[in-house]
Amino acid sequence: MLEFDGVGVRIDDGHPRVLLHPLTLSVPERRVSVIGANGSGKSTFLRLINGLREPTTGRVRVLGDDTRTAGRRVRRNVGFVFTDPLSQLVMPTGREDVELSLRTRRLPAREHRARAEEVLDRFGIAHLADRSIYDLSGGERQILAFAVVAAVEPRILVADEPTTLLDLGNGARIRRLIAGLDQQVLFTTHDLDLALDADRTLVVDDGRVVFDGDPGEAVARYRDLAAATCTTE
Amino acid sequence: MRGYGTTLGLFEPGRGFLYRTPLPVKAAGSLAVVVAVVGWRSPAVVVVVLAFTGVTLAVGAHRSPARILRMLLPALPVLAVLALSQGLMTGGTRAFAVAGGIAACLLAARALTLTTPLPVLLDGVVRLVAPLERLGADPERFALTLSVMLRSIPYLAGSVLDLRAAARARGLERNPRVVGVPLVVGAVAYAPRTGEALAARGLGEHPEEE
Predict the structure, then answer these.
(1) Are the Cβ atoms of B1 and A130 closer than 8 angstroms?
(2) Pick from B5, B119, B198: which is nearest to A90 by CB?
(3) Chain A residues inside the 8 Å CB shell of B143
(4) Residue A117 domain-assigned (yes or no)
């Protein structure tokens, strides 16, 4: 369960501005999508969940833990998948990167390899285990990014635009992968088909959640917003 | 990012006795090469050590002489400058001892990284610095630092190739600033991005922290 209690984010880097206006909501649903224009505050919202960004007002609780005071425990419970897997993957091959994730679990070294193989197999990429991450396709890399995050069995998984860099086929692979995950998953996306797979959708516009509810209605609302923006311009 | 598909200086699966040799033995061998080169500084020792590292790589990792020489290619410009400056200042014999000695050390280090999977190397680093834990150091952070450093080499090499291609596409390949400036800016941006990715995965956090 995620709880946002009056959570707002402001920054002042010479040009003070509000990235997210104060927001209060609870998120018990298993699949939650967040849609909105570029720069609307979607990623800021996601980054609050595993403490990559701290709120300037209010507090975020993840499974009861405050992200500000229990950051380490929160990050153990919340896995984060970035838009570009190359920003996320640190090791030369998939197997090594999964093993790197497992180092945080303080397992005996000999268990790392067996657990890594098990994870890669579960995600259907065991045959790519020893390939350089640079030799993988965009879709394979993104699946690997999910695998390295899921390897440590977080209870919540957060993905920031996981299909943005992918073609239609690979986007569909990621959709199936997200649908099959055991964890609670929150994701931002510009892929409206993916957004419709969720149980609940938030529409973010200019740092405010302007709709929160049924995915079908949310997508309609987002289309109206985008159309209004085009007309204004 | 495109333009490169392999990681420089890292493990490549293969066969040969070096792959079966325990990490501490390989590390001790590499250290012995460095000690010999630095301790004696003589051309004769450099010839012996170069031959030793070359033969070890050829027999122990089944690498052809051409592939062994290619391992030195990335360092060739630096070795050439060093040899030239030493040659002008102290003569040809000294130049050979310095450049040849460094080449032998590079090959010895390459023999280690080529035949040791990175997780095994990281475990070795953790064991090596474990005694420092009593002084408050976190061995896992040492290992993570090493892995990030090794990761940044192919990233930067790839950046150079991509930027060169972009410069060629704009007809600006003769202007070094077109590659140099975005390379530095990209490298600076890469650091916090990597840090953020590690933080998101909970890597590098001390177990006692909270």
Answers:
(1) no
(2) B198
(3) 103
(4) no
Average pLDDT rounded to a whole number, residues A145-169: 91
What CATH number is attached to the domain comprising A185?
A: 3.40.50.300
With the C-alpha atoms ordered B114, B118, B120, B124, is the resulting torsion angle positive or negative?
Answer: positive
The verdict on a CB contact (< 8 Å) between B4 and A134 is yes
Query: What ranges do the domains of chain B cover?
Result: 17-116, 129-200
- Map tokens 């998948």 to a residue: A81
Give pLDDT tens digits for B159-173.
888 888 888 888 887
CB atoms within 10 A of CB A154: 21
Q: Tell me what pLDDT residue B9 has.
A: 57
In a domain, A178, yes or no: yes
Put simply, the answer to whether B1 touches A148 (Cβ < 8 Å) is no
* A57-62 and A65-66 beta bridge pairing: antiparallel
- Min mean pLDDT across A55-59, B189-193, B201-205 is at B201-205
Sheet holding A200-205, edge to edge: A78-81, A156-160, A184-188, A31-36, A200-205, A208-213
Could you read off the pLDDT of B35-45 as tens digits, one per residue?
A: 999 998 889 99
